[in-house]
Each structure stands twice: as structure tokens, then as C-alpha cells.
Amino acid sequence: MAVLPILTLPDSRLRRPARPVTSFSDAATLVRDMLDTLYVTTNGIGLAATQVGRPEAVVVIDLSANRDQPLVLINPEITHTQGQRVDQEGCLSVPDYTAEVTRYETIGLAAYDLEGQCREWVESGFLATVIQHELDHLQGRLFIDHLPPVKRRLAQKKLAKQGRRARGALA
Questions:
Q1: Alpha carbons 8 and 87: distance in angstroms, whole number
Q2: One MF term in GO for this entry (predicted)?
Q3: Is residue 80 one of the residues assigned to a domain?
Q4: In which element (H, E) is residue 167 found?
Q5: Among the four residues 96, 140, 146, 168, which has the most C-beta atoms within 10 Å?
């Protein structure tokens, strides 16, 4: 079991776009480590490789009650969108902050599995929201980037204050 450190703002690596996976056998170890990391968090439901400092375009999501039905997305791409919905979002990389974010209600998705097979399907509702949130990470975006400027600045100030408080506790 390898639990990877989760990057938090203001770490600049969160803003770097991911690169496509070219070796699916190499991705298997990363996926296992990401799932281990996701499962030790108390409130995590999804994780992008960029959140653990890795450049690969890999996402893991598990909404199951027993946390035993992971969805693995490699080189994922949204192929079409429809409608809108608003959900309360939070993020392991933006701790202790949530906000309402508008996303697409329904998305078409294409992604590879660990065997290198491309699948295409449609998702709606909360899972579509989670997928969009995680795919944003692969583009170097965070959910707070979807907020109006005033709310985004408030979030950044709160996170900076939390960071100063944490550094002070370590001194």
C-alpha cells in the first residue's frame, strides 16, 4: 500500500496540465497508489494524478458505499455536454472550503481502462459533476476557478490564512 501526499493550494504543481498516458502497464501502479490514497481519506471520492504531483492524465473515483467499486479514467475526454446543475463542491487540494459550482448535468465521456481499451458512455447527475471536477484537475484548474471573482478571492484568502496557521504550528 502506497499512500501518496496530496498537494494543496498554493502548490503550483496543481496548475500544471496533465500529459496523456502512453504506457498502460506503468499506469497500473499509479492507479493502485491513487486508490490507496483515496481510500485513506475520510471524505475523498475522487482523485486526479495531478493532485499527487504526477503528470499523467489519470483519475480515480469511487462513490460506492463500501468504497470498493472504483472508476478508473485514463486519458479521459468529455465528448459532449447538456444542461446544467449546481452542486456543493469541495476538494482534497482545497481543504476545508466548499462552494456551489455550476457544471453540466449530462456529459459524454471517452476514456481508456487499464487494459488500454477505449470506452465511451454518458453520465448524468452527481457522478457527472465529480468527473468534471476531476477532469478540471487534469487541465490545471480547481473548482474555485469556477467561482465569481469575489468568492474566489475569499477562498484564496482563507486558504492562505490556514497555511500560515499550519506553518506557525510547525515552528
A1: 21
A2: peptide deformylase activity
A3: yes
A4: helix 149-170
A5: 146
Burial of 55 (0-12, 13-18, 19+ CB in 10 A): middle
77 is catalytic: no
Q: How many domains in the chain?
A: 1
CA distances (Å), origin 96, targets 39, 84, 102, 160:
18, 25, 20, 12
Q: Determine contact, residues 46/130, Cβ cutoff 8 Å.
A: yes
In whole angstroms, what is the distance from residue 101 CA to residue 151 CA? 11
Q: Is 118 annotated as a binding residue?
A: no
State the catalytic residue, choosing from 56, 89, 123, 134: 134
| DSSP secondary structure code for residue 19 in this structure | B
Residues 43-88: tens digit of each pLDDT: 799 999 999 999 999 999 999 999 999 999 999 999 999 999 999 9
d(CA 69, CA 35): 11
Is position 1 within any domain?
Answer: no
Please report whether residue 4 resides in a domain: no
pTM: 0.92
